[in-house]
Amino acid sequence: MRFAPQGTAALSLFLIEAGADLPAALTPAQAAFARAQGFTGAAGQLCLLPGEAGVAGALFGYGTAQARVRKRFLLAQAAAGLPEGAWQIVGDLRGAEAEEAALGWLLEGYRYARYAPAKAPCARLVAPAGVDAARLEAIAAGEALTRDLINTPPNDMGPAELEAEARALAAAFGAEITVITGEDLLEAGYPLIHAVGRASPRAPRLIELRWGAEGPEVALVGKGVCFDTGGLNLKPGSSMGLMKKDMGGAATVLGLARMIMALGLGLRLRVLIPAVENSVSGAAFRPQDIYISRKGLSVEINNTDAEGRLVLADALAAADEEAPDLILCLATLTGAARVALGPDLPPFYTDDAALAAALARGAEAVADPLWRMPFWAPYESLIEPGIADLDNAPAGGMAGSITAALFLRRFVTETERFAHFDIYGWQPSAQPGRPKGGVGQGARAILAALPEVLGL
């Protein structure tokens, strides 16, 4: 997932908008060939141009502006269809459009091949003029890490394996890492993380990574439920099939942390990942149990399948104790978010209008869509069961993503700027730059917004 070096001899890839004339640089024979192939510039069309020694170049249909809005990373389709070698774009690409095209090409090069061969495209792009190639390669590497972590099945990606990945990342960038495991969680004040993970023979843990000595402090909290059976409220098999991705928040946070460290952003980074397996045994936590969280709030368990907000609650409370400049929480938290917005559009929640606006601008600039949802105060009563301070699973099922977000907000009281992202972390079917499987959501938008939010 790297660009071809500048100065590499490269074939030309002409970007042609729908209905536009063919390039004057084509020979008469090439133009006649393109017309015979029915090339019109429609979005995604690819026409290889013949030459004396084989392929001499290619035309790619860049469609209309509306078509490009409807399909992110359109140019990645060309990467998938071109023969091996170096290619350079010939067309009017500038600014954010050029960056999206170039990044999409890199992301198309990702394939998960740990257990079976998976052939990735061999066509390499010479980075367009004006594009920061090193930055985009760092972003692509962070996204590849996220995808690898989500795609790895739970037998090879439990809490210990997630810890190992975090340790490798910390070692690569000179970050500090500490881990609290098993029964030590109780002594250290993380009762909810312990309760959720204690039923599994794979010990629960809190993974903490710190990097950077100067600048504003940013805390990233990621849900690391490495597999979710639902606990005693056991999921049906159809709902358990994708639960290897329930650590998608942790995977996305680690990918984002890699981007931040690789780019050397002037901030102090703190990453907190509660890593557990929500399993079934005689030690499992039960419906109707009540636990006192790290924050001191009592929580009644009314569904053991609403475990993500529990482990996040203790981690958020720990992040909040330092009152950092910004806390961001990412989690594959609720099915309700998917019902509302589908798999491509993650909601985020914040009370800070300026933070919301910066995230929205970042999301649009880097083609990493987000949609703001409300911390709707009238629903606060839904998460208050009466017998305890909080209910982890309000009855009725309405506004499930909002009530989950409200639950998490109760654990952030000392930090002014906080946002929660209810991501999906999975690409249901292959799209340009996004093969079927694990995918990061929100990380690139956050990365784009951080300089504005923190004044970097």
Structure description:
- It is a single chain.
- The chain is an alpha/beta fold.
- It folds into 2 domains: 11-121, Leucine Aminopeptidase, subunit E, domain 1 (3-Layer(aba) Sandwich), CATH 3.40.220; 137-454, 3-Layer(aba) Sandwich (Aminopeptidase).
- The chain has helices at residues 28-36, 65-70, 76-81, 95-108, 133-151, 159-173, 184-188, 191-197, 237-240, 248-263, 308-320, 335-341, 353-365, 400-409, 443-454; strands spanning 11-17, 46-51, 54-63, 85-90, 123-125, 176-181, 205-211, 217-222, 224-228, 268-278, 290-292, 298-300, 326-331, 347-350, 371-373, 390-391, 418-422, 426-427, 437-438.
- Helix 4 packs across helix 5 (133-151).
- The longest helix has 19 residues, at 133-151.
- The two termini are 28 Å apart.
- The model has no long low-confidence stretch (mean pLDDT 96).
| Major sheet attributes | 9 strands, mixed
CATH topology of the largest domain: Aminopeptidase
Mean pLDDT: 96
CATH superfamily of the largest domain: Zn peptidases
User: What oligomeric state do the depicted chains represent?
Assistant: single chain
* Domain count: 2
Write down the Rg: 24 Å
Helix content: 25-40%
- What is the CATH C level class of the largest domain, in words? Alpha Beta
Shape: elongated
How many strand segments? 19
Which tags fit this structure?
single chain; 456 residues; alpha/beta; Leucine Aminopeptidase, subunit E, domain 1; Aminopeptidase; 2 domains; 9-stranded mixed sheet; 5-stranded mixed sheet; 19 strands; 21% strand
